[in-house]
């Protein structure tokens, strides 16, 4: 017996923004959202060519690319306002944009220019997206949902990449606080915490080929196989859909048992 139309269209009529949407987890999520009937998908990124090509491949009649640097609050605000003006609502914000420094910073050798750049994207940018999405939802009376990309690094200490680990702890704290504050408006706020994935960004940061990255991370998980961006996208779909209608403030690990 095939999957019902209800299961196939978990986001029917929904309007969604995906930051960091041009590649990696964001790209996979955009494709999953389109498969499940989203009315409109806004891909926000600073990778213009990749974002435009992705929007065209999904379908330009309901998928749009917008250049947005999340470290610039005015750009985030304008992106949200444009979405609401064009589509009349914003139902889903997937705040996914983030970076990884190439350096392996420890507490003893923190280099604060790199630290500040990482926090500007991973923490300040994440907070700006949550802030302006929530304001749009509250103003329109939309019982929407916000999903942030955290990491397994947001619940564990690390022997290196101290700045990245700190930033992802901050994302989890943001989600927990926002979920308490926005619950009265019917807005759910959750995050996904993946283990390592061989995304273009991660391969560049580790200076390794995709198959090499996959072998490194596969060895650290309990489940056999490789974690893919699609696995995370499916988790985001769950948190963005009515299947998680009474779930908020939750950090959903997608890590093959690494955290256990």
Automatic annotation (TrEMBL):
Organism: Vitis vinifera (Grape)
Ranges annotated as spanning the membrane: none
Family: Belongs to the short-chain dehydrogenases/reductases (SDR) family.
Pfam families: adh_short_C2 (PF13561)
Name of the protein described by the UniProt record: (-)-isopiperitenol/(-)-carveol dehydrogenase, mitochondrial
Top-rank taxon, per record: Eukaryota
Entries under SUPFAM superfamilies matching the protein: NAD(P)-binding Rossmann-fold domains (SSF51735)
Gene3D superfamilies: NAD(P)-binding Rossmann-like Domain
